[in-house]
Design goal:
Helix content: 40-55%
Strand content: 5-15%
Largest sheet: 6 strands, mixed
Number of helices: 10
Shape: globular
Distance between the termini: 38 Å
Order of helices and strands: EHEHEEHEHHHHHHEEEH
Radius of gyration: 17 Å
Strand order of the largest sheet: 1-8-7-4-5-3
Length: 237
């Protein structure tokens, strides 16, 4: 099996066991997109501190679900990552129905730029400009960008495509175009990238389940086991 198909895990023994059990129960684990040269692993205290700061008001990213849910997931994804697209469109909706909408899990989505995908930085800009018109607008653009990834990622100048996506998502296209042409989204993108650096994100997608790192777009059946195990652990405290 390709080593890149194996999700790397940093978690307590019980949670790690659940992850590994779910891994071995499936033949086709979804791969991850890896940087060419990985940065050194950050200290655990730094990751824990960054995780807590990521949940404070004004932190980068977009929240879904109950703020005080017993389990929190922070997802780092790049719009140019094909496995992020697969997870976002095929896996997350199933998990959302079962865990997020029921109040069991708070899911924070942080769009950042890994720096290895064509037009990935421009797609992040488009998403942030959509977010200026509300979280619903961001979610619609998020879906458009992932569904049409093969289209905009191969375009020499995707600006026109992004404006078309904004129109299809029901956004104010004039406001969107003004934002995209300016510097409004730069600060949020930079903050997301800095948070990813502090937490040692070096692959997409990367998830932190109650602070513990999981790398790789796991199928819903595997992620469900991880979340259920995290819920059982949280109920013991």
């Amino acid at each position: 099996m390709n080593v890149n198909a194996i999700p790397r895990i940093v978690a307590p023994v019980a949670l790690a066991a659940a992850i590994l059990l779910s891994f071995h129960s499936q033949e086709n684990v979804q791969p991850i997109e890896l940087q060419g040269a990985e940065p050194p692993e950050p200290p655990a205290a730094q990751v824990a501190s960054a995780f807590e700061s990521a949940l404070q008001p004004g932190a980068p990213g977009y929240d879904r679900g109950a703020k005080h849910a017993p389990v929190t997931v922070i997802e780092f994804a790049d719009f140019g990552c094909r496995y992020c697209a697969q997870f976002a469109l095929a896996t997350y909706p199933t998990l959302a129905d079962e865990f997020v909408k029921s109040g069991k899990v708070r899911w924070k989505y942080v769009p950042f730029v890994l720096g290895m995908f064509p037009n990935g930085d421009q797609a992040a800009r488009a998403a942030e400009c959509a977010a200026d018109q509300g979280t619903t607008a961001f979610d619609r653009m998020h879906d458009q960008l992932f569904r049409r990834q093969g289209e905009w990622s191969r375009n020499g100048d995707p600006t026109g495509l992004f404006r078309f996506y904004a129109q299809a998502a029901g956004l104010d296209t004039t406001r969107f175009a003004t934002c995209y042409a300016g510097h409004e989204p730069d600060g949020r993108i930079r903050a997301s990238n800095e948070l990813a650096d502090r937490m040692g994100v070096r692959a997409t997608p990367t998830f932190f389940v109650n602070g513990y790192r999981i790398e790789g777009a796991l199928p819903a059946v595997q992620f469900r086991r991880i979340l259920n195990d995290a819920l059982r652990q949280s109920s013991r405290h």
